[in-house]
From TrEMBL:
Source species taxonomy: Eukaryota, Metazoa, Ecdysozoa, Arthropoda, Hexapoda
Protein name per Swiss-Prot or TrEMBL: DDE Tnp4 domain-containing protein
Membrane-traversing stretches: none
UniProt domain DDE Tnp4: residue ranges: 2-115
GO MF, one example: metal ion binding
Amino acid sequence: SDGGIFGRSKLGYQVKSNVLPLPAPNRIPSTPVVSPYVFVGDEAFPLLNNLMRPYPGIHLDDEKRIFNYRLSRARRTIENTFGILVARFRILLQTLYMQPEYANDCIKSCIVLHNYVRQHPRSESYYIPAGFVDYENPENGEIIRGIWRALVPADLRQVAKQSTNNYCASSAHYRDTLKQYF
């Protein structure tokens, strides 16, 4: 799962150990709220000072539901971005049988090409046509799944819940602070 891979990665170690060179916590614009910069995860990830995950459970109060909704909107944007990359750069659908440094270059190249094509004035209609990414129906709030999901095998989209409920008090405090802000 993504959470398991994250936990064993260099990035995961650095986030858990608070040694990743992230900016210092900062005030959220137009508020007195100070919050650390965070990565956005789902239920598969642990709650850490710099990694936000939703509140667990289904019987949540309104503030927690709103927090989870806002966090899921941010996560959906990230999922759509990865979905576009994999759907458009089909090499990412398979194991990259190459040295790690070449794999890094390959992935970075896909990202650079993605950004280049997105900035081209005529590309939007064919590179990311209407309905290609997930969107929210403005009338009822229902999430309409994007076409990219049909182009990417389900096993690349599934994330199993494998995280622990253990977290430190400061992580919960930061999440509660963001909950109050949202």
